[in-house]
Amino acid sequence: MTSSEKPHGRALGWEHIETRYPYTFRMFRVREDIVRWPDGTIRPFVYVEAAGAVWVVPVTADGQVVLIRQFRYLIDDWSWEVPAGGFHDFQGSPLDLARHELAEEVGGESDDWEYRGFFRTGASLFDQVGHIVLARNVRLCRKPQREPGEIIEVHPVPVPRA
């Protein structure tokens, strides 16, 4: 999560005045910074601070990417995704969380893992780091152990179609 210091912003003319947290939830909190913008106006800058997350790119031995189609209440629709999860209630490394999410969401296992890097998930609205982990030779060999409310379909798709 972000510090109030913001030395790069200060060097570019942004001045942090105050921080408030109007809403906190177990997965994130809403942060409102009162800021003097580079043009001299004082305005709020509101964004979400969220724990990091991991996205797993699972590929089977026969070259299929294991995608999920998950119902998302927020958009009231189905969303094509890869297995993913957050650190809000998990202690461990990105690789540990990737193993956990692959098993939980699709019932998958792998002995061939590679950390591929990280990215900022939505730098204009979110302060969150997303980690990408590649799982090769994935086996869909057990029953998924999904969280309450997770409505997920598992779809292995040939790499060229994914």
Provide an overview of this structure.
This protein is mainly β and about 160 residues long. It folds into 2 domains: about 5-50, no CATH class; about 55-160, Nucleoside Triphosphate Pyrophosphohydrolase, CATH 3.90.79. Helix content is about 10%, strand content about 50%. The chain is built from 2 helices and 12 strands; from the N terminus they run H-E-E-E-E-E-E-E-H-E-E-E-E-E. Strands 4, 7, 8, 9 and 11 form a 5-stranded mixed sheet that branches. Strands 1-2-3-10 form a 4-stranded mixed sheet, with no helix packed on it. It has a 3-stranded antiparallel sheet with strand order 6-5-12, with no helix packed on it. The mean pLDDT is about 95.
In short:
With 162 residues, the protein is mostly beta strands. It has 2 helices and 12 strands, in the order αβββββββαβββββ.
CATH classification, class level of the largest domain: Alpha Beta
Counted beta strands: 12
Beta percentage is over 45%
Instruction: Enumerate the spans where pLDDT stays under 50 for 5 or more consecutive residues.
Output: none
Give the ordered list of helices and strands. Answer: HEEEEEEEHEEEEE
First-residue to last-residue Cα separation? 32 Å
CATH topology value of the largest domain: Nucleoside Triphosphate Pyrophosphohydrolase
The overall average pLDDT, rounded, is 94
User: At the fourth CATH level, what is the homologous superfamily of the largest domain?
Assistant: Nucleoside Triphosphate Pyrophosphohydrolase
By DSSP (H or I, 4+ residues per run), the number of helices equals 2
Helix content: 10-25%
Mind describing the biggest β-sheet?
5 strands, mixed
User: Which CATH architecture of the largest domain is right?
Assistant: Alpha-Beta Complex
- Kindly provide the radius of gyration, computed on alpha-carbon positions and rounded to a whole number of angstroms: 19 Å
Shape: elongated
